[in-house]
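TEACHING EXERCISE
Course module: macromolecular assemblies
Task: Read the component lines below, then compare them to the predicted structure of the full complex.
Student: A.B.
Group: 4
Components provided:
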Amino acid sequence: MKILKEKSTRIIAFVSACIIFAICAVSGLSDIFSNKKIYDKYNSFYMRSAGSHEEAEEIFSKLWVVGNMYLRNLDENGKFTGSDELKNSTEKALKELEIMDSKGNITITKSENFDYYVSWGENSISTDNKSYDEIYKSDVFSITMLNDTISHSSSMGGYSNYYDGSWYTTDYGMTYYDFPHTINNIMASAVYDYDTTELDYYIDNYGVKIYYKKDGSTPVPNPEECSSNFGMEVYYNEQEPYYDRYGNIVEVPEDEEIEKVTVPASLLKDNDNSYILYNNDENKWVKVKENTKNIGNEIPLKICVSPSEKILPIYQQLESDMKKAEKNITRSLLGLIPFIVIVVVLMGYFVVADGYDVKQKKFVMNSVDKIFAEIIIAVIFGLGIAFIGSFELIYEFYDVIEHSYSNPQAISAAAGSFLLTLIFALFTLTASSIIKRFKCRSFWKTTFTSRIWKIFVKIMKRIYKKIKSISAIIKDTIFSKDMHNNNVFAKRFMIKHGLFIFAILLFASINSNFDIWSIIFIISVVYIFSNLKDIKAMTELSKQINDIYDGDYSEKEVHMDSPTYTMTEKLNNISDGIQTAVDKRIQSERMKIDLVTNVSHDLKTPLTSIISYINLLSMEELSPVARDYVKILEQKSERLHEIVADVFDIAKATSRTDINFEMIDAVILVEQVLADMTDRIDKSGREIRKTISAETAPIYADGKKLYRVLQNLIDNALKYSLENTRIYLTLKKENGNAVITLKNISSYEIKFTPEEITERFTRGDESRTTEGNGLGLSIAKSFTEACGGSFEIIIDGDVFEADITLPVTIKEK
Amino acid sequence: MDSFENACILVVDDDHYIVNAIAKLLEKEGYRIFKAYNGIEAIESLMQNDIQLILIDVMMPKLDGLSAMMKIRTTRNIPIIVLSAKSEESDKILGLSMGADDYITKPYNPMELVARVKSNLRRYLSLGSVDSTHLDSSIKIGGLTLDKDAKQLYVDGEPVKLTATEYKITEMLMENAGRVFSAEEIYSHIWNEDSYSVENTVMVHIRHIREKIEINPSDPRYLKVVWGIGYKIEKSGGKL
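Instructor-supplied answer key:
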């Protein structure tokens, strides 16, 4: 099996198949050529138009004329039944055709080569008065007419065709005969049952004289037209119907006022079997009716022509030769069948195995297989036609060399075999190539159609992409909501091009010239789209600037061809710089927070010991002085504890790590803080005037943190306000914000700015003698900001005001 | 409370001075103190001695406080108080959820420390029997036990005297532990009338209740102000 897959095996099979085929072709062709002469002879005998057989055909035609024109009009006794005029006319016609001699005897032929028989009903004429069956020779050759059917018969078969009786009789007394075969070169003839002497006539296209009476009862042609040629011209005008060349009424196209048609006069009939003729004298159309006699379904005409004893042996010889040749050829061709089977098997194997690659273990294609499949298929069809056509060529070649060479058969067979083998080999190879494509499952790929399809798909994709990108540009620049707000370029673009399109349309309404129009249209489209590209680039640039403004410093990529390429690159550099700076700042801020956190954390451990031991110390037996000192130590260590805790809190708030957001009510918060601090407020001797001008103020924030903020502010106010003054606390809703304001009159001159006081460790009284660590307002500020609000200090003379602004949230549900 | 004076307490901290200070403080209260300076020592000491309470630091070498506590919790049910410099809420939640009964931040207030130690010891050593008798009509949240029949509140087993209003507020909050009540709600429920600006009135009572039930009223364990919303008693009780 393995050997079958080898390429060499395939080639051997192919070559041997070709050789066998060539040998078969030589053998077959030389057999055919050796019998060719007999064939040709035989064929020439039996072809109706072939020269040597003409005589039989003419005899048949004569018999047809005798039957139809003469025998038909005889009664049982052989007497002519028609008028004298018809008899004269018929005799004249028969004499003209040399069927009747001057004595009035019917003479069909003088050659005696053929026997004949003709009968119409009872009346018959035949060679030596033989009967139909005596004449008829089915095994050699006969031309017969029976039951309206003309048959040519021979031992090799024959052919027959229905004969529709080409003669008719008109109601004005003319009978027209159209012969099945020319007799003395006459194709047709007409007879009349009226006197035609001194009548005018014209000659129709079959060469028959058609007589006409001038009283209009017979067809009157236009002499000029008819005598000169086969037909006459028919003029049409609106009053008369229009007839085509076969006499049928047809619709006339309205724009054609006059139609000129040349028609053969004898065929100019309308559809009710009337002749249409133009009477020149009266200058009008004349209609003459034709009344075809009903001659029944079957004409009782019986004709037979057969070779007579004189030439019968020639026919018999021909028949036997032909049969022999036929047998020879059949035998030799049958002998070739085994070889043909071998050729088919070998070629079948070649086609199946072709293209298999042993190394790759699959079918592979070669360069031929990559030629477009359509071309190969066309070649296959071409080869098929050439194969059939080549036989003709080979015969012609034989005919040409037949007489110039001593052995034309061998030469022709060799040449023909070469040609056929070549076509066969090429056919096999091309067919195999197509099959190989199927084996490799790549037939479609190799077709030109697929290539075209691919290109088509590619183009369509590209168009689709283009349309998409254009629509994206339009969407981005014109329909984007964002751009309406921000992009002045897009707005200006819309206005400008709107005006432009308006102007174009205005122009269009004035000028309707299509050429100018299409040019302007194309220019406009190109103009608008090129501008659209620019506007897109500008839009992207402005978007990038927006992004940078919003804190997005990511790098933007723009195509090198874009008009904003260099600008985008520069912006990228700028935003990169900003990014670096911001990163650095965030990093240093974080480091600061970490530092504070760590420090405050590390402070706690020794502080714990200090507080613990001070406490233990205070429990010991001490002198009154020492006890005072311990007391101070206790107080100061406690304050140190507070400071550390505050610093830690600020650090946490700034880093926003410890914020628990929830929905709370600022009104309740303020109330709660005030209630919580009642004791301290009372103790301080100050009065807090609260004004809450809202029922609720829902905010999303950390309640604990805001408690610290308010506590610090109130503590501050209690500490630093002038004695016996009032502290004003208000809460109101303003522009979607809850604003808590705390106002008090300072007990000392305010020498700091609002900025300074919110800095860490800044205190109102610079001597720092009072309690407090200076972190109160700083905590308030950072906590408020951590809760998403803003904190502001306003100083007006001695009036100190703190504003906390927090965004009011619309409650869910 | 005097009956627990000879209870044994294990103090664990890597700072020797702090351990000594706590030891001194608690010894003055009459407790027996065992000292350990890391988690491993703590576990060893716990196995060798009959310890009733542990005070443990979080950040320690070898084995940190939380890991040690988890190990202890697998075998022992004694009260554990975490003592840490980490004061953030997340730290407290972590400590309590890992098995601590209480959480004290450094620097601690000595008085508060003592109070909390006592409270935890009392609950551990005496309350188990007290509670079971009042199962039906009592509400227990952490160290708080409310006997509704006797209209009496116990804090760590100690009866606390409350006024009628204070009792009503406490009962209401304890029955709905975890739920936040606004001042208006509390007011209309207790006084049975609507009123404006009741924050002050309610807050005064809340403060008074706190002073009675909390060890450190400014850092309450049970009764809490939810700033900007209202008041509540924590469901889990004692845990924050």
